[in-house]
Amino acid sequence: MSGFFRDSAALRTSGDAPESPQMRVPLTAVEPDGPARGGIVVLHESRTFSEPLLDLMRSLAMEGWVTVAPHLFHREPAPSDVEVFGDALFADFDATFDWLIARGIYADCVGVLGFDDAGTAALLVATTRPVGAAVSVAARGIVEPLSEDAPALVDAAPDLKAPWLGLYGEDDPSTPPDQVELLRDATAKSDVAGLVVSYAGLAHRADEPPQVPDGRDDDPGAQAIVDAQRRIFDWFDSHLR
Predict the structure, then answer these.
(1) Listing from the earlier edge strand, what are the strands of the sheet with 164-169?
(2) Structural domain span for residue 50
(3) Which of 62, 189, 191, 231 is 20 to 30 Å from the Cα of 2, by its Cα?
(4) Which chain regions cross the lipid bilayer (predicted)?
């Protein structure tokens, strides 16, 4: 797959412990053909990267972003039902962030894009890490925390320190419209730009495009996917400078 390569990033450690393979995060990355404008960390809770997700990463790289996805399940043997969230996910983000900085990317030119529970993490990253912008897709845990170590998003959103975009589907039972509205209100209390967008049905996943009949470019699901992707690209383009 042209442009893609594998690498690994060192986890942050304390003390003088020697490095081991368990202390590194496997990465899949793609670089732009020319000079990099910045970097995008893609958080995705799946052991495999779907073709639509890889296409999204490739498209981001074509826009000038070094795009890198940590393999979040690297600690867990397959198969495993362990959910990746909490300290381990943030440790993997920090390692990936450091990997981008080591490649000459400025901290305020690093964005984070997360899906599902990793989308929840993307918002929380934007409250605690020196990133330039964040995008969450279908982020859960809006009113009830996903873990003991993570606040509910309505409680975290007022503390956003980086511009944040949230994309939701109105028919997603994990993120009911009334909860999304509460999140929209909480985001408005922050000191940075925030935008929450809801789409009819479930057609808001840039990593999982709907099946659209041939020749039906006017299909609402296809139009929603195009709009969601455009918003992701525009958000990073506007805020990572």
Answers:
(1) 4-10, 24-30, 65-70, 38-43, 110-115, 133-137, 164-169, 194-199
(2) 24-208+216-239
(3) 231
(4) none
Does residue 12 fall inside a structural domain?
Answer: no
Gap between the Cα atoms of 27 and 32, Å rounded: 16
Enter the tokens of residue 80: 């495993």
Q: Which of 207, 206, 200, 240 is nearest to 225 (CA)?
A: 206
Residues with Cβ within 8 Å of 29's Cβ and at least 6 positions away in sequence, in order, are: 4, 5, 6, 7, 66, 67, 68, 69
The number of beta carbons lying within 10 Å of the beta carbon of residue 130 is 14
Q: Are 158 and 186 in contact (CB under 8 A)?
A: yes
Q: How confident is the model at residue 1 (pLDDT cuts 50, 70, 90)?
A: very low
Tell whether 10 is covered by a domain.
Answer: no
Query: Could you tell me if residue 14 is inside a domain?
Result: no
pTM of the full predicted structure? 0.89
- Ramachandran class of 35: left when φ > 0, alpha when ψ lies in -120 to 50, beta otherwise: beta
Better-scored residue on pLDDT, 78 or 174: 174
Q: How many residues appear in the chain?
A: 241
Indicate which CATH number applies to the domain containing 228.
3.40.50.1820
